[in-house]
Amino acid sequence: MDLPAVVVPGGPMLTGHFRGAPLGCGTDVWRLSEEVRAGTLSREAFLRSESAMIRSKGHCNTMGTASTMACLAEALGMTIPGTAGTPAPDARLLERAHETGRLAVSLVAEDRTPSRVLTRASFLNAIVTLAAIGGSTNAVVHLLAIAGRLGVELILDDFDRVGSGVPLLVDLQPAGRHLMDDLFRAGGLLAVLKEVGDLLDPSAPTVTGEPLTAYLDAAEIWDETVIRRRSSPLLEDAGIAVLRGNLAPRGAVIKPAAASPELLRHRGRAVVFDSVEDLNARLDSPDLDVDETSVLILRGCGPRGYPGMPEVGNLPLPRRLLEKGVRDMVRVSDARMSGTAYGTVVLHAAPEAAVGGPLALVRTGDPIVLDVPARRLDIDLPQRELSLRTPVTTGFAEPARGWQRLYIDHVLQADQGADLDFLVGSSGHEVSRESH
Q1: Pick from 82, 102, 105, 317: CA 20 to 30 A from residue 245's CA?
Q2: Alpha carbon 75 to chain centroid distance?
Q3: Positions marked catalytic
């Protein structure tokens, strides 16, 4: 509607501890649940870890989707700079909320609306930020959708073109070791952005009326184990990688910072699951023909197929491989995954299986080739053979009526932001006719 607006992020929870070690909300759920399935951690201990993990109010304290989008709201210029990452229980967040309330009055008085703040430069700055903080792959669909609502030009390839060469500077779970409490203590987002200031567009404004880059000079890094200097990053090229090939002609994404380096180039036999229900039924079956070199394929979990593109792309590993000590495998799907998750996981494959995308053609045993440096994702079979196959159509949502029917008929693919087609573009806030 393009009404004056400003964001106050709710803030991350404080760090919890279990057995003397800090716990990352979400990330350690994935890690410890696999240990339960592997038989190395009891279910009782796992439940105790859960109660220790959620120490206070606030969103996940890892660099999950909530933390990522709070940081990106600031990078987009939609918060008072310096707000993102302030812990939820911290009195300084109340102080910033008070400042934001005062600012809101000015925004209305000056009619400073989101369309005046959110420019293409703002989105490109957000992509740089996403790489530097090791942020969630969910940010890709969110930023594409937000840009679509504004009519700002942004495409999937911009994430690779702008972000792929940006270094990872924040040592935070799931790509690193620390948690959001540590990031705030170490200098916060502005200290991170100062290190990559030369990559930011200084023309991008903020809700305060000042450019984002105007707030960087005073920022300092207070703990270089949490926020790395540009000269010593965790990873040189950390941005989201966009893959293409005959398995994802319109693109798929992977987060190299959270993947196993040795699996970024990989060839393996496909083990295919037609739905989440199929995965749950067969994953731990002794009859499943799988080993650590296999590529787990999950389809039917895109925007239309599920419907709603669930966070199931970080498939659990087969129990018998966990018991052998395997902790990562290549996984490919048309789904999303939690920003708290990790692993060599290829997501958002487009077009999805439910609209006839190539994932619907894959059969168990097909050779799958992942080459992240070359930005490729392929079924290594002749195109003629693939063209003779009938796409799988089982496991996809097919509601007869209601909101789900409307959603399936109008939702866009992941490479377009998975928004509804009739919501693309801005309609403004004017009410043209009276209702009484």
Answers
A1: 317
A2: 16
A3: 338
